[in-house]
Amino acid sequence: MVLTNEFITQKLTEKFGEAIINIEEPYGLLTFEVPKEMNLKVMQFLYDDPDLQFRFLTDLCGVHYPDQTGRELGVVYHLHNMPENVRVRMKVFTSIQQPDVFTATKLYESANWQERETYDFYGINFVGHPNLKRILNVDEMDYFPMRKEYPLEDQTRIDKDDEMFGRGGSI
Amino acid sequence: MSELIQQEQQHVKLPEGSIGKQTTTLNLGPTHPATHGVFQNILEVDGERIVSAEQTVGYIHRAFEKIAERRPLYQITPLTDRLNYCSAPINNMGWHLTCEKLLGVKTPKRVDYLRVIIMELSRISDHLICNSIVGVDTGAFTGFLYVMQYRELIYEIYEEICGSRLTTNIGRIGGFERDFTNTAFEKIERFLKEYPVVLKEFETLFQRNRIFMERTMGTGGISAERALNYGFTGPNLRAAGVDYDVRVTAPYSSYEDFEFEIPVGTTGDNYDRWLVRNQEMWQSLRIIEQAYRKVQEFKGEEATVYHADVPEYYLPKKEDVYTKMEALIWHFKIIMGEIDMPKGEVYHAVEGGNGEVGYYLISDGGRAPFRLHFRRPCFIYYQAYSELTKGAMLSDAIITLSSLNLIAGEMDA
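Output (structure tokens, whole complex):
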């Protein structure tokens, strides 16, 4: 049996009904969104179902959409069924006020550091994570730098007086 | 004397789970020569046995993902160099391929084959470093120094093509910045002629060497199941017995045109990892030979093609910029980063030196990516280090560290 995108979509909607939303196929990769409280259920189903068997977590990362009120922060999972060589992309969205998402570490060990990284940069609180602390940034940091409200420094700004970095006070 | 030591030791608070035993906390890194990179391991050792290991990473974190959110596509290529700097060209090509996928650019066959040559050369240089470093850590420095000459030759080939050696910034969206010169082809030919002899010698130095085998066999092993759960890819996963290779499962850059095998191991230990990398170098040589032949077969007009026709992203010829209006406009627009990307999101992966190097790019139709995420294989599989070294000897843990081929730049992005 060939594991096509239609088949996966059909399987998912059979099991979860209306909960699977925003089904798209950008560049051939099946992408769908699930409510954040269902992310573990859907992942477990994708993992266990004998026809699906998505048992490899390729990638996990966060995204910040400041304009989507109530669902600003997203977590994107790339799952892979290696024997059939099919990938899917699963997204969950959460509000920035209460960014709680269930952790995937129970299913995949590889989610551990990737979730820590996502927490580090976006402040997404992975509920149930064994060791949720900053990983790449310093522990003392009190903000989440990849959020869109922290723009990169404007190259033309002149208020910084720093001789060492070529922004001499002479401007 | 020993009573005195015992008295002193009573002040030390014992870690949980240690049954009346004295363990020592040992800092391995961040600037220890044996870590081959800037990352720290806090080891809890009982004598010479490791009780637990806790890794700290992030010492050279440079916020590439954030920086990329303000840069046009072509300016992100130099950032990818600095991920896995032992095989920078693979990262560069992976990034170009991601952009091409987003933009829907189809590259000519000659470009694909030239890219394959470069990617396989850098795979060899990556594996070469890793395998010879494993040698150094087991006490054999000769091999390392010997093969450096051939890494140097590979770097000379890069230099001939793009002008730089380590952080290459090689290629452009759509192809290469210039055609390969005759000197480049001569050097590739020389490499193909000389390197197999050297690799064979290097192999005989280690493969059946009793000291090497006893140091590496049975240490740092992992089962296929655990390796998959930990997100291993690349040689480290293949050493555990899973024949997953992106070049085969999702061929890019015309890899489907080549004949090669995927070596796999069984136990996933340090020795198997070494063997897999070694075999992969032979396979890479095979691929380069085929690609080189295929490139030589192009005749006439086709033999001069080195880039696709993408005026929006590929810089026009300099003489055209000076003489033609259209070329001047494109040049200006590209340099100033004034070209809007199509909307969309794309994930593209290539087989890097350490595994699946993936680029997840979300574009909102602006001039820079809305979000760019690098899937860095090192970062993902380094998590397994504490499991790999639990109960192992300290000296074995060092070999495990180098045979995993951890590259700090890739880990920290």
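The radius of gyration of chain B is 23 Å.
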